[in-house]
């Protein structure tokens, strides 16, 4: 694959850096759209994201140096100038940065935690596509049909079919992001979405590591460094999910739903009473009109008055005759 897209003078656009930039922009856009339903002000998302990106990259580089400390002692500038990063270092550094930022700005950390991590999965997914173009984080050799051979990589062995672990990781991260977005509509307690990310990502990362062919990522016994860290991240995610499930703090979206349901329940009886009163009023209206009509005497016409006067005169004449 080609990592260098094009050059303008001394400036070269690398696919790896471009995909990371696209991932950050996509994550930021999604976070800003989701912020109001997650109890966050949209104006606070961008500055928080910038701090997270800077801190995350710095801590990812620090973890890379710690992981390859022997090579760093031999040639520090080479490791500092390389594009090597360790994702777990970025995640841990980002969480610490968010904790401090929320403390200073008096924001609810758990709301920010739930808002950020689904977007982090999106950014990681695009970043792994960048890894694929660069040729880093490659898989083991394979003769399978899905094997991919690099031709211009500075990291992976060229002209050898390898398992495309970068694309597998990217697809898995997009799936994780989708599951977290779905879970956001069902989770009731603040912090559970972030805990779910920790569990899902650590499991996925642990499994993909078995397919990796690059040994520079370090080992702890029979496990890679990332597999070793994944065990603790998974345990922390499970513990955090259980802990937050017992919390009384509801997620903002869950609070809105509960308030809406309660309001509907409170107003429903009153609306029913008013509807029944209107129905009864309509039903009794015809009877009232009929009774009113019966009680009103029919108006006397001029013809009736003349007939009565004539009858009275005839009766008077008859009385006089008898006398």
Structural features, described:
- 70% of the residues lie in helices and 5% in strands.
- With 323 residues, the protein is mainly alpha-helical.
- The chain has one domain.
- A two-stranded antiparallel ribbon has the order 1-2.
- A hairpin with a 2-residue loop joins strand 1 (4-8) and strand 2.
- The N and C termini lie far apart (142 Å).
Layout of strands and helices, then pairs:
Elements: E1 4-8, E2 11-14, H1 15-34, H2 42-67, H3 69-74, H4 76-81, H5 87-105, H6 109-134, E3 148-149, E4 161-162, H7 165-183, H8 192-208, E5 219-220, E6 223-224, H9 225-245, H10 252-295, H11 302-322
Helix pairs in contact: 1-2, 1-6, 2-5, 5-6, 6-7, 6-8, 7-8, 8-9
**What helical percentage do the residues reach?**
55-70%
Mean pLDDT: 82
Strand percent estimate = 5-15%
Q: Structural class of the secondary elements?
A: mainly alpha
The count of DSSP E runs of length 2 or more, i.e. the number of strands, is 6
Order of helices and strands: EEHHHHHHEEHHEEHHH
Descriptive labels:
323 residues; mainly alpha; two-stranded antiparallel ribbon; two-stranded antiparallel sheet; 6 strands; elongated
């Amino acid at each position: 694959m080609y990592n260098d897209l094009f050059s303008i003078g001394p400036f070269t656009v690398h696919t790896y850096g471009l995909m990371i930039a696209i991932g950050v922009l996509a994550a930021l856009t999604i976070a800003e759209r989701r912020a109001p339903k997650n109890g966050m002000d949209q104006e606070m998302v961008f500055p928080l994201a910038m701090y997270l990106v800077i801190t995350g990259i710095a801590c990812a580089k620090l973890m890379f140096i710690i992981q390859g400390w022997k090579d760093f002692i031999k040639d520090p500038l080479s490791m500092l100038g390389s594009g090597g990063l360790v994702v777990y270092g970025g995640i841990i550094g980002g969480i610490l940065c968010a904790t401090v930022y929320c403390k200073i700005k008096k924001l609810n950390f758990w709301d920010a935690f739930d808002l950020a991590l689904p977007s982090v999965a999106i950014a990681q997914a695009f970043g792994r596509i960048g890894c694929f173009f660069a040729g880093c984080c490659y898989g083991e050799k394979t003769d399978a049909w899905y094997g991919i051979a690099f031709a211009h990589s500075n990291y992976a062995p060229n002209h050898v079919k390898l398992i495309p672990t970068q694309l597998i990781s990217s697809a898995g991260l997009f799936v994780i992001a989708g599951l977290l977005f779905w879970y956001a509509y069902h989770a009731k307690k603040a912090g559970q979405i972030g805990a779910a990310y920790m569990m899902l990502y650590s499991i996925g990362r642990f499994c993909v590591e078995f397919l990796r062919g690059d040994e520079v990522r370090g080992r702890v016994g029979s496990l890679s460094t990332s597999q070793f860290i994944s065990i603790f991240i998974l345990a922390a995610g499970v513990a955090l999910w259980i802990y937050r499930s017992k919390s009384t703090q509801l997620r903002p979206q869950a609070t809105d739903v509960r308030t809406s349901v309660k309001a509907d329940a409170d107003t429903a009886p009153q609306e029913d009473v008013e509807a029944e009163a209107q129905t009864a009023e309509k039903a009794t209206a015809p009877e009232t009109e009929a009774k009113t009509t019966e009680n009103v005497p029919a108006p006397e016409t001029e013809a009736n008055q003349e007939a009565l006067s004539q009858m009275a005169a005839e009766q008077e004449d008859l009385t006089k005759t008898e006398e």
